[in-house]
Design brief:
The complex is a heterodimer. Chain A is of the alpha+beta class. Chain A has helices at 12-15, 18-36, 80-84, 125-129, 155-162; strands at 63-65, 90-96, 108-116, 135-137, 152-153. Chain B has a two-stranded antiparallel ribbon. The longest helix of chain B is centred in the first third of the chain and has 38 residues, at 13-50. The chains are: A alpha+beta, B mainly alpha.
């Protein structure tokens, strides 16, 4: 059965377009007038204004290494993150903690810890797999560099980005 | 050679005509190109404002490069310079399958006509006794119609020579759009010729200086600033302006104005009639395959056509360079300069209107455009001529 679509009957004013054109022009003029005085513009001027303040806690930005309030670097160079990393962005070179160090009982720490940010996919698996709560995805998202070498975060950069995180499980306490 | 001899040579009538014309052409052409680049910037800025955006606001003077503390943006005005530099320095890519000769010819054919049209536009009264028109042609308006419709060949050639389906569709659309609008465009200005009795744009503007802008239903007769001192004479002049013929003629002139302005929109391929370009349907329309300076020439042509169209509208309906209470250039060179400024202010108002309309109205459908041209404007423009003739014949001044 054919469906008959009822066309609305247009008045002369509607058929000659002009009144609705004028109405449309009035609407755009209103926006123009408002925007000239910088009102109603929703654009965020990116490098000067950032959305950092409204970023959620679970945001997955750049992976970083953290140290704790006891002055200990959390990472024990177990290399689990290196193994789990899907794009193989992490390279760890472990080393033994020398005799006489305050944290000698931990035995291992990374000598070098590189995360290649051109490879990182921000999946968060490294954070999930870490048994020491040493690696966290923080809120840094604007990772830039002029060449590939600059895009590799070394241990120093990672600790700088991560900073000190308090209130983590302290399993290397004196009882151990 | 001593200076008096050179001066004597420069004041020989034909030499004088030659060098003043060259100077006028040079200055007006450059002014037109500056207007074009300002219009492109204004287009981006106004469109942004209408859509509640910011628009280009980054390109400015990089003071930090020279040891300054902060870059100076100037509302992004540097964009006017940055755009042409980008277009000039890009690679001019020519696809393999194109017809090389016509592909290169087409952009020039689009760019040249609007600039030629500027020759007959009176952009000022006189400056040091030199009339501010490049060519004082008796067939002024006809010249505009004849030349400006040539740019459609450029668009059609571009569409055809590109050897690609979307430009081809754009080219075809352009030619069919032209035949449905040129008629209404030509017929809509005939009432003006019947009232003024001349095709010469200079004479049309002079008529408007004496009798008031054609688009105004009332104009005081012989009113000037000095009359303000004599209230009775001023009142007399204000009353003399009221005339039944003028009031009645306002109706057909308003119709003419609306038809003419809509036809100019179609002529310059501006929205709501930018069917040859139609980004959403035809990628880029006739200039899909063009890049770099060839593309920039199309761009320049479109905006120069806008400028020429606005200048024609201003000269025909809005009194050209004249402004009430401002005398013409024969009273002093500064008045001549003010007249030129008045002309450019009027033109830029119209250009703003062009931009404003573009970001308000959606594009007309193909058949809607045809029916609007053939069934709407053509009969109305024709009837309008008869209406004007009746008023002129039966209602005397």
């Amino acid at each position: 059965m054919a469906l008959v679509v009822k066309r609305p009957k247009l008045t002369l004013a509607e058929r000659c377009y002009l009144p609705s054109i004028v109405a449309g022009l009035a609407i755009t003029w209103k926006h123009l007038k408002r925007a000239i005085f910088n009102k109603g513009i929703v654009t965020m001027q990116y490098p000067e204004e950032k959305w950092d303040a409204s970023m959620p806690d679970w945001y997955r930005g750049a992976p970083t290494l953290v140290s704790d309030e006891h002055g200990k670097e959390r990472c024990v160079a177990c290399q689990l993150c290196e193994f789990i990393c899907p794009p193989r962005a992490i390279t760890i070179k472990p080393t033994e903690i020398p005799e006489g160090d305050a944290w000698r009982k931990v035995e291992k720490r990374p000598e070098e810890f590189d995360i290649d940010m051109t490879r990182c996919i921000y999946c968060g698996l490294c954070e999930e797999v870490c048994p020491e709560q040493a690696i966290f995805l923080r809120k840094d998202y604007s990772i830039t560099g002029l060449n590939r070498a600059e895009m590799v975060h070394d241990k120093k950069t990672l600790y700088k980005l991560g900073g000190v995180m308090k209130g983590l499980v302290f399993k290397w306490n004196d009882l151990k | 050679m001593d200076t008096t001899l050179i001066l004597h040579f420069l004041t020989i009538p034909w030499v004088f005509l030659l060098w003043t014309t060259f100077l006028k052409s040079f200055i007006f052409l450059n002014a037109a190109i500056i207007v074009v680049s300002v219009t492109v910037f204004a287009e981006r800025k106004v469109s942004a404002f209408i859509q509640d955006r910011v628009g280009p606001n980054r390109v400015g003077i990089p003071l930090t490069l020279f040891g300054g503390k902060k870059d100076s943006f100037f509302f992004g005005l540097g964009q006017m310079v940055a755009d042409p530099i980008k277009l000039l320095t890009k690679e001019n890519f020519v696809p393999a399958g194109v017809n090389k000769f016509y592909f290169w010819l087409a952009p020039k054919l689009v760019m040249v006509p609007p600039i030629l049209v500027l020759a007959v536009i009176p952009f000022g009264s006189t400056l040091f006794g030199v009339p501010m028109t490049i060519a004082n042609l008796n067939i002024g308006v006809l010249f505009i119609f004849a030349i400006s419709s040539l740019s459609v060949y450029g668009i059609t050639l571009a569409g055809w020579a590109s050897n690609s389906k979307f430009p081809f569709l754009g080219g075809i659309r352009s030619s069919s759009q032209m035949i449905s609008y040129e008629l209404a465009l030509g017929l809509s200005v005939i009432p003006i010729f019947m009232i003024v009795g001349s095709l010469n744009l200079n004479e049309i503007v002079d008529w408007q200086v004496k009798n008031g802008w054609l688009l105004s239903p009332y104009w005081p007769r012989g009113f000037s600033l000095s009359l303000l001192m004599h209230p009775m004479q001023a009142l007399h002049s204000l009353l003399l302006g009221v005339s039944l013929q003028r009031l009645l003629l306002w109706v057909p002139l308003l119709i003419s104005f609306v038809i003419f302005i809509v036809a100019i929109f179609a002529e310059t391929n501006r929205l709501p009639f930018d069917l040859p370009e139609a980004e959403q349907e035809l990628v880029g329309g006739y200039h899909t395959e063009y890049s770099s300076m060839n593309f920039a020439l199309f761009f320049l042509g479109e905006y120069a056509a806008m400028f020429a169209g606005s200048a024609a509208i201003v000269s025909l309906f809005l009194g050209g360079w004249s402004c009430p209470l401002i005398p013409d250039g024969s009273h002093g060179w500064y008045w001549g300069l003010i007249n030129i400024a008045v002309f450019f202010v009027k033109v830029s108002m119209l250009l703003l209107f062009f931009i404003w309309v573009r970001w308000t109205l959606p594009r007309f459908r193909y058949d809607q455009l045809m029916s609007l041209g053939w069934l709407g404007f053509f009969p109305i423009a024709l009837g309008n001529i008869f209406l004007t003739a009746l008023i002129l014949a039966f209602v005397h001044h």
